[in-house]
Amino acid sequence: MDMSSVINARHGAEAETEMMTASMMEMVFFSSTNTALYSSMWVPKNIGQYAGTCIFLILLATILRALLALKAWKEAAWLDAEFKRRYVTVAGKLPKSERISSDSKRMILTENGVEEEVMVVAKSGMEVRPWRLSIDPVRALLDTIIAGVGWLLMLSIMTMNVGYFLSVLGGTFLGSLVLGRYSSRESH
């Protein structure tokens, strides 16, 4: 049974859809200097425009790595600021204010005023930090920008153009080489 008899045996629209699906599933990399990127308006018409498109993708991938490093830096700064706000009194020690009021001869006034014995509380596992207007909208904006840039890079790779694919890999390498030490261990 050949393909034409199979098509004739089926209804027209159903057979056409099945053939389109089979041809669309074949995904191979190709090399072309006139592959559209993001829209039909962005189609390189010569080798210079194609090189410019590849340079754009290298810069976009490098920007993604910079955004990941920025997010890691901001997260570390926010966590440090939060830990600097956490103090508790040490059990078994009277605060200086109570010792001062009970024994005025042993009064100690420091540059910070009356002091108490305190220690910084260390992180002891998974905990939810409080929602803060000064932190969470910035975090959400950074995450949204990172996702958007990442999806733009993904769409460029989905064109299956070898030059675009290698440009994204080159930009990722360049960004990691320059800024990778600033990224958190969890980032990709």
Describe the protein's architecture and organization.
Belongs to the copper transporter (Ctr) (TC 1.A.56) family. SLC31A subfamily. It is found in: Membrane. Helices cover 56% and strands 3% of the residues. With 188 residues, it is mainly alpha-helical. The chain has two domains: 28-83 and 131-188, no CATH class; 87-120, no CATH class. Strands 1-2 form a two-stranded antiparallel ribbon. Helix 3 packs antiparallel against helix 5 (136-157) and helix 3 (47-84) runs parallel beside helix 6. The protein is elongated. Residues 1-7 have low confidence and may be disordered.
What is the N-to-C succession of helices and strands?
Answer: HHHEHEHH
Q: Could you describe the largest sheet, including whether it forms a barrel?
A: 2 strands, antiparallel
Total DSSP helices? 6
Strands of the widest sheet, in order across it, are: 1-2
- Structural class of the helix and strand makeup? mainly alpha
Point out poorly predicted stretches.
1-7
Taken together, the total number of domains comes to 2
Distance N terminus to C terminus? 50 Å
Described by the principal axes of the CA atoms, the overall outline is: elongated
Which range best describes the helical content: under 10%, 10-25%, 25-40%, 40-55%, 55-70% or over 70%?
Answer: 55-70%
* Beta-strand share of residues: under 5%
Radius of gyration over alpha carbons? 30 Å
What is the averaged pLDDT score? Answer: 78
Q: How many strands appear in the DSSP assignment?
A: 2
